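Backbone shape codes:
===
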Amino acid sequence: MSSETIQPQTVAPTAPATGQADSLPAAASTSTTLVLIAVAIIAILSGGVSVGVYHLVMAPKMIKLAVVDLPTVYREKETAFERALTKENATPAEREAALKIATDFARQLPKALDELAAECACTVLASNAVASRYNVTDLTQALRSKIGL
């Protein structure tokens, strides 16, 4: 055996060609910037779509309100009923008809109010229950026509 020792060889790193060293980081930063811009655009679009879908589908619709002057309608019907009952020369059949008018009115009124609410797709309130009438529809005349006044 020889007394020679084997020394490991070290390989010197090779330097890239001129101009190539500068282009690698620039290309990496450009692609990173494009990825970040794409992610930002996707985030903005998905947020916008989410808000739009919520607004159209999930958000509660504005409640429409309408009023009816129930005391006036009651007084008008009561006056008609009273005239029929207190009419001179009223026959018992006419008085029975007046009582039938009163019972029919008691049945018609809730149905007429429900129909009004369904027709206008709104909540119908008694006018004396509303403190302010800004942008509220008055359906009293429609109720009168439904119950025959």
Remarks:
- The mean pLDDT is 80.
